[in-house]
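Bench notes, afternoon.
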Amino acid sequence: MLAKLHTFSLYGIDAVPIDVEVDVSAGALPATVLVGLPDAAIRESTHRVARAMVNSGYHRPNDRIVVNLAPAELPKQAATFDLPITLGILAGSGQFSSDRFNDYAVVGELSLEGFTRPARGALSMAITAARERRLRGVVVPAASATEAAVVEEIEVIPVATLTEAVEFFSGERTIPRAPSRMSQWFDQFAGYDLDYADVRGQEAAKRAICVAAAGGHNICMLGPPGGGKTMLAKRIATILPPLTAAERLRVGDHHGRQGADSILRQRSRPLHRRANGGMMLERGQAGPGQEHIRVDRVRGIAAVHPSHVH
């Protein structure tokens, strides 16, 4: 029996839609086969998935299970495929049925006990779901629901366990969508711990930074260690105009893929002067990190520019 679900994978700086196709064939030699360029974390999910099903009170089918992650030529990474793969196996083995698979995407890592764990890049996945897939909503781990709920155009359904996810998709349980608390976050995180007014001296450098910030220009600071370059750079964001809701969503999209709590603030990331190109890459790919996060020319938003990675 075949089951098909929608999910997302982080590929570089983007969240891309992925189809999870699960076929459970009774009578064949028992095995679980994963195809579609999964990474090590996904290949190891077969053991997590099996124990999560059993420990949640479900039956792990002793059949041949083929899991296809489409498109096949796109490398897949992260453990957020645990939940869609598990739901696909349970649906493919006839343990429950659902007419919501076409309306909701699902992401999430599972523990051996069947509890969900936070999904890195939940905000980026929610943005992609609202923009490209025309989905009604996305099912995410409860710990990531607040981050994903920033996107108000879709329903964000929080689930804390595998059982809750199964009952939601089967229609046995109604789970209210996670509320968006963006306005509350604006008030809570509007300030910074640092202040540009703390800097004493450095008049020429402070003047140059003010001009660059006001005009949206790039700035390069050169000098010996201990000269104050990092101190000044950390305080540049405090003199920039406040971010709008759309701009904060954009910043959070980039930094949320690293698991950073920076949806509402502009943030700088220090780069060691001896770091080479390989040190700036994440698993060999250009993730939201060092050199390619720069200050936007218009409003000073941390923006990702893959062409700036050398």
